[in-house]
Design a protein that fits this description.
205 residues, rod-shaped, 89% helix
Length: 205
């Protein structure tokens, strides 16, 4: 009777856990697909920008941080499932023991499960902290990339401005030279027109 009661009590909780675990895994997979699709669209948009490589690098950094965070969640979930499966297997083995052994085993199992949950919670907390840290690093890297891109754009604008000024100066100098040449040509013609007439030859006797 005791064995049957323990089995009946454990089975629903075990089923609920694995159902919840599958739901969480489905959520992680769906979020991964959504993120990948979003980052693919951002990659495509980068090819329309002037600084394509810088844009692609920024998207890649954010992609790695987001996917790494999902991977950490998935690893933690797998770890919890392994622990629950191990506990379930222990329970099935102990069901063949005496009532006293079952009671002691149940206590050990409860203690082990509690310790496991605490370890998983600590591990999940550390994973979340690492995920936040990586996200911050990715954001900082993205901000640095944006600043570098802005600086490069300003430098390019200065180069283009200098080239434009140089071209305008050249046009101005060419025009001044053309004016000087026309003036010199007019002065030369005026001098030729104002020359005294050549002396006429003496008439023959």
């Amino acid at each position: 009777m005791l064995t049957s009661s323990l089995l009946a009590a454990a089975q629903p909780g075990e089923d609920l856990f694995f159902a919840a675990a599958q739901k969480e895994r489905d959520r992680i997979n769906a979020e991964r697909l959504s993120l990948e699709a979003g980052f693919d669209r951002e990659d495509a948009a980068c090819y329309k920008k002037f600084f394509t490589n810088s844009c692609l690098k920024e998207v890649q950094l954010r992609r790695r941080a987001a996917i790494a965070l999902l991977r950490q969640q998935e690893v933690a979930l797998n770890d919890r499932e392994r622990k629950e499966k191990a506990a379930a297997q222990i329970q099935k083995t102990e069901e063949k023991s005496s009532p006293e052994a079952l009671r002691q085993a149940a206590e050990r199992r409860d203690q082990a499960l509690q310790e496991t949950r605490e370890r998983v919670e600590r591990s999940q907390q550390k994973a979340d902290e690492r995920g936040v840290l990586k996200q911050n690093e990715a954001l900082n890297a993205a901000e640095t990339a944006k600043k570098a891109q802005a600086s490069q754009q300003r430098a390019q604008a200065r180069v283009e401005q200098k080239a434009t000024v140089a071209e305008e100066v050249k046009k101005y100098n060419d025009k001044q030279q053309e004016v000087k040449e026309r003036k010199a040509s007019r002065e030369q013609k005026q001098r030729e027109q104002t020359k005294p007439p050549a002396k006429s030859l003496p008439t023959p006797p």
